[in-house]
Amino acid sequence: MKIKFLFRHANNLFKRIKQKRDYIKLCNRLPLDSNLIFIESFQGRNLSDNPKAIYLELLNNNKYKNFNFIISMKDVPKNSNDFYFNDRTIIVESKSNQYYEKLAQSKYVIANSVFDLSFKKRDNQIYLQTWHGTPLKKLGWDLNTKGSNQVNKPWQIREMYKQDAKRYDLMCSPSKFYTKHITSAFALEKWHKEAIVKETGYPRADFLINHTDTNVKEIKEKYKLPSDKKIILYAPTWREDNYSMNKGYHYDIELDFERLRKEFSDEYIIVLKIHYLISDYLKINNDEFIYDLSSINDISELYIISDILITDYSSALFDFALLKRPMIFYMYDFDKYKNETRGFYLDVETLPGPITKTNDELVYQIKNIDDVDIKYQSKIIDFNKIYNYLEDGKSSERVIEELLKTV
Description:
- The protein is an alpha/beta fold.
- 39% of the residues lie in helices and 15% in strands.
- Strands 3-2-1-4-5-6-7 form a seven-stranded parallel β-sheet, sandwiched between helices. A six-stranded parallel β-sheet has the order 12-11-8-13-14-15. A two-stranded antiparallel ribbon has the order 9-10.
- The longest helix is centred in the first third of the chain and has 28 residues.
């Protein structure tokens, strides 16, 4: 296994060196377009999260009518009804020749995760990194547990974060807490980049602030969810130490679905949003109680239709707190996750919901969700004052203002 790992690492390194050399040639040949913005979410898996929110503000606000857009996707969609099909937007296949040509010409580059390491920023090019959530679990240079990602070793993670961070011109932040820990996770002070973090609010929160009852109705109809049932959203994070060479990332849902069905199917349905790295591994049969919507792009749609969130160590908790609805933390592997897998940036006892570690405890809290709501309502308000105090539905516009004045 070690030989395979070293071979794969060496092969990827040589491939990246060649890609970077070819990319520099493109930059020398192609002019930079000051009105072109390159956008990528999750290495091109979809258009979602902060980049989507920024794109929609740029597209729909008349102040930015002179800008055109390149959107990177691994699978270029064919459905012309999607909102990103318009005369100002070109969709390119991720890592294709067209991808690199358009990237070389784009004045602005926006991403929410570690971006293509072949990308060498040219003079006057601006790179905005939004990241993808306020972190509860430790990231990057802050990882000091004895466990490790089975694909990327700790030194590789630090090296990727270093290469990406040294290219940053701007990062957006939703809070002082986020600024402190994202600065540490990316070792921004090492690269003299700490001043690039601007506390603007988080663009993806705008939809949660601004959504309407009509949005809720339309989303339920789009995913064919019953209108007469309440919704429990289960959105756990991934476990990077659950990996094998033959299976890839894998995960066993530690929920007793049959018990939940027996206890709650008269009143609730369960909607699943499993992390994209493990959702393909799971084989879940949808029925009238369980709806697996892991493949949808925008989890914000699921937040606004849900009455309860069950999560664990995911940044979903910070977003869902904006809705002031009850959440339950199902941390069945708490000790292992804390001591071996990741560790945390804050004391989990301060989270705005009960912590459960067994199915019995989880069922009890769902049965008593009205009491949970009452007990934690003031705690959610205080939580938002620490982590979401900038969110007023206008964060995307503030980020764009910062982006356009960055030099």
